[in-house]
Amino acid sequence: MSTPDRSPKLLEIAGRIAEERNRLGISQSEFGRATQTHRNTVRHYETGERKPDPLFLADLQNIGVDVLYVLTGTRQVSVCTVLSGLAVDLSPEVIADKVLAIGDKRSAAYRRGLVDVLAFRLEGTRIQCPYQPGTPEFDAYFAGNERGHFQWRLMVEGAWKPN
After folding, report:
1. Phi and psi for 132 in degrees, rounded to 5?
2. What is the DSSP string of 90-127?
3. Is the pTM of this model over 0.70?
4. Which domain, by its residues, includes 118?
5. Measured between alpha carbons, how far apart are the two ends of the chain, in Å?
6. Greatest extent of the chain over all pairs of C-alpha atoms, in Å
7. pLDDT digits (tens, 9 = 90+) for 137-152
């Protein structure tokens, strides 16, 4: 059996597919289910043994993969971010500080939950709760996560802009 001819460009795309799957924190099987693709096909795409087809790429977009990055190596600037008036250099921490400057004081765990969601939405950083289930910090962290998702929707809709 002969080895398929894998061009450097195809290998770069394959590596970025695997990188994006890992960024989302999901297995090849979960990735396959989300894109209606068999796990072995996902593996073939990630190793450059097969070229990804257009329907697979469309499904990738639907689950949060930056398809422009997969194909070109250049990260896409979110249209939603641009429309909401956010500058690229505005970090999740700065946004959280501006959001939390008004109203009741919140715990560090709440702020961390808010920042983690904003970092995921703006930078693709994986969300990982640092607190043990059943603790007050755990509950506060997930309350902050909810606020982060709410804040993101406000930003996307243009209903919130930094001062």
Report:
1. -75, 135
2. --HHHHHHHHHTSSS---HHHHHHHHHHHHHHHH-PPP
3. no
4. 80-157
5. 63
6. 67
7. 999 999 999 999 998 8
The C-alpha atoms of residue 114 and residue 24 are separated, in whole angstroms, by: 18
Task: Count CB neighbours of 21 within 10 A.
Answer: 23
- H-only helix segments in the chain: 8-24, 28-34, 39-47, 54-62, 67-72, 79-83, 92-100, 108-123, 136-157
Residue 68: both structure tokens together: 């422009």
CATH number for the domain that contains residue 36: 1.10.260.40
- As a whole-number percent, the residues of the chain with pLDDT over 90 amount to 47
Q: Is residue 48 part of a domain?
A: yes
Q: How many CB atoms lie within 10 A of CB 130?
A: 11
Cα(21)–Cα(119) distance, integer angstroms: 17
CA distance 111 to 118: 11
